[in-house]
Amino acid sequence: MAKTLTRRDILKFTGxxxxxxxxxxxxxxxxxxxxxxTQNWGLTPKLAHGPIAEQFSHxxxxxxxxxxxxxxxxxxxxxxTGISGHPISYGTVCARGLxxxxxxxxxxxxxxxxxxTGKGSDSAMTAxxxxxxxxxxxxxxxxxxxxxxxxxxxxxxAISEIYKEFLSTLPNGIFLSSPSNEDATxxxxxxxxxxxxxxxxxxxxxxxxxxxxxxxxxxYWGTPGRMSALRNAGTPKIIQVDSRYSxxxxxxxxxxxxxxxxxxxxxxxxxxxxxxEKLIPVRNLRSAADFAAYGKTVNEFIPxxxxxxxxxxxxxxREIARTLASxxxxxxxxxxxxxxxxxxxxxxxxxxxxxxxxxxVGTSGGIVSRxxxxxxxxxxxxxxxxxxxxxxxGVLIVDGADSGYALPWSLVQRKLIPNEGFIVSLAPVLNExxxxxxxxxxxxxxxxxxxxxxxxxxxxxxxxxLSTPLLKKQEGTTDSVDVIRELSVRLNKQLEIPxxxxxxxxKSAALFSQKRGSLHIPSDNSILPIRDLSSADxxxxxLTEGAVWIDELLKQTSVKSFTIGxxxxxxxxxxxxxxxxxxxxxxxxxxxxxxxISPIMSKVFQETELRxxxxxxxxxxxxxxxxxxxxxxxxxxxxxxxTMKVRxxxxxxxxxxxxxxxxxxxxxxxxxxxxxxxxxxxxxxxVTNDGTWxxxxxxxxKV
Amino acid sequence: xxxxIIFITGILFGLFIGxxxxxxxxxxxxxxPLQFSHFVHTGEKGGMACEDCHQTNDQxxxxxxxxxxxxxxxxxxPLGETENEKRLVDEYITPNKEIPWLVYSRQPxxxxxxxxxxxxxxxxxxxxxxxxxxxxxVLRPRQTNRISGYSRDIWGASISGISSNSxxxxxxxxxxxxxxxxxxxDGCVACHK
Lengths: 703, 193
What we know:
The structure holds 2 protein chains of 2 kinds.
Chain A: H1 7-22, H2 26-39, E1 52-58, E2 67-73, E3 76-82, H3 95-98, E4 114-117, E5 124-127, H4 130-143, E6 147-151, H5 158-168, E7 173-176, H6 184-192, E8 199-202, E9 209-213, H7 224-233, E10 237-242, H8 247-251, E11 254-257, H9 263-276, H10 282-286, H11 291-299, H12 303-310, H13 314-326, E12 330-334, H14 345-358, E13 367-370, E14 393-398, H15 409-415, E15 422-425, E16 439-440, E17 451-453, E18 463-467, H16 480-490, H17 500-514, E19 518-521, E20 526-529, H18 536-544, E21 548-550, E22 581-587, H19 603-607, E23 616-619, H20 621-626, E24 634-639, E25 642-650, E26 659-663, E27 696-700
Parallel strand pairs in A: 6-7, 6-14, 9-10, 9-12, 10-11, 14-15, 15-16, 22-26, 23-25
Antiparallel strand pairs in A: 1-2, 2-3, 4-5, 4-16, 8-13, 17-18, 18-21, 19-20, 19-21, 22-27, 23-26, 24-25, 24-27
Helix pairs in contact in A: 4-16, 5-16, 6-14, 9-11, 9-12, 9-13, 9-14, 12-13, 17-18
Chain B: H1 2-26, E1 27-30, H2 38-42, H3 50-53, H4 68-75, H5 83-93, H6 115-121, H7 126-130, E2 142-145, H8 152-155, H9 172-181
Antiparallel strand pairs in B: 1-2
């Protein structure tokens, strides 16, 4: 054998070495470690390391007014929970609120003004300066021949008053609120009452029966913590009238399945029985100034007719009326679905009128009036979309807050002057409305700026709190109050508009001066009467530390004088010989159209479908059989507004002959920044003249 | 014949490098700032339990490695005559300075781990994940991966990453397997907030 090493030997040795290494952990471990190394590069954002602290604030993602406790590391929030003992939210925060600190990093977050140009696939977003965005907006306001509207989906805040003040200086200024309609019953009653306008709340805690017409009471309605506390307490009894076996229906004491779109007939039928069977005191009947006309309206809704219309047995209708009338403290509430939208005006009036007949307005355990919040002007009713003529809005400014309830783009679009309507969105994230804007002037996101938290819908006493910022405000964002100030300067309006902080300090000072109510201090769960505070500054400090002010309960005086305003109610003839089915849209509050959810909440939609993903429809097995639909297979769903591919689920809890359609966000938000409104079932819904879309008819094209 | 021998020698050399030499190159050792004997404290003489020093506070939050103040509860002045205890008192307790312990089980920043659901609610024993650490007489050096920066304890003592004991290795697959064995099905957000 040769004793010298040749090149061939070295190559063989090397080859053997490499083979040996492949059978060792070295290459695989190096691969693993290298990938970890790349994750730790300098440009990779890193969590802060530092002292752990707790900060208290309030959630702004909807009008629920929930108190939140944030755990922070070096001032950066990493976890949010509720505040145990919080008098409004009872320690509960909804899933969106728990992930609220993620929203600053949402993939569709906008942190700089942008301009949209072009349409459809040619549209583009271009970053622009704040000044140019404001100049363009002011110019359009000056030049438009239409009205100038501001859409505020959380009216009642301090900024809402600034909007109204600004709009009052313009020739055709309109203050709009989108139809969340959690307060539909309260607004209807407010419109019916003769005496000086008061704001109302529901005294659920002292009621013994709630008859809910579709209000998703146990599915993020109002303040979720308050409602779940009621449910856990077991009182009052809840009867849910619902066309779906919704989460609220599941958790109520009783579910009354009703044919969709027939809620007003049930309400009128109950009223009919109140009158004909003398189930309620005569004095309650006489409180309605237009009782004669109302009586004539309800006269025809005998239980048998109501049964035919609603699908509810006539005996059951009688039982509902008698149960209501025999309760000591009943409340009747109507409600919108976050995806399905509000009821029409007639339905809301019919339902609200039951409270009047029951005599529970201005009584403990019923619908209670509240003190006005000191420092806040008694706001006028929000204008309904239905009262605005089509094609009349020239400039629409959309505030950044959202109600959590759906707002179809088609509803907005029809009110704009075609080809001229100019939209400016102040939203901090791209959503289905802001994606149609001409300009985006993003406001600071959730927990990035100081905001006031007005009284949550339906709360029996006035409240006030602040959302203290927990996150750093992004440089390119602008508080809405500053936007309005800049616009008023450009338009030469003599308005004195303070900064956001100064504005809220004024409100706080007004609270202090009234010396009424008390503070809940979250750090030690104590209650401190306002009169025990030393100064307005002291109150301000406590509010910025997470305290919430709760007003005293107003001594109730039963309201005796109303005008119901419900004239003859028509019953449309049923459509004959059509293969179209009523489509019930439904959704999850905060995940419908003008809001986004944290993309990390993948369990909700993507992983486990706790909520049905966008594009999912459910039908009863008999309906599926009738239309040749198969479970989980795609089908084409068509309405007057178009066709889209949907995924079909076969569910025996769905009413036969009905389609339940989930309004949900597209996975992780919206598909593209350009025109994201592509495939959401909400766009298939038919929006009627009164701004509702509860009764779209749809059909399956392919079977 | 010769070429076969050379080739096999190469294989063996590769195996040697990959299995034996590689860990020495990969990990650097850092001694703890102070030597500490768990055995003295938890053995028959000390009689302490893990939770006597590694506590959960009133809000259920695990406190991790105890602060110097905890040591000071007993060692405000030296109890014995060891050099290490003297250093503890002179260099840390007296000047009220925290001991910069090198943590063996530090997880990456993107992993959220809470002791509360595992120890308080799940009633898991410390030894399940930390082995016999509570009875060691000396603190071994922290072996840090030069590339990833993580402790060798995360991968496991064996360079293969394979181990039969639950306390060897703390990578994600181990957590996932244990969760699965105990009937827990979690999505990503459970641990990666």
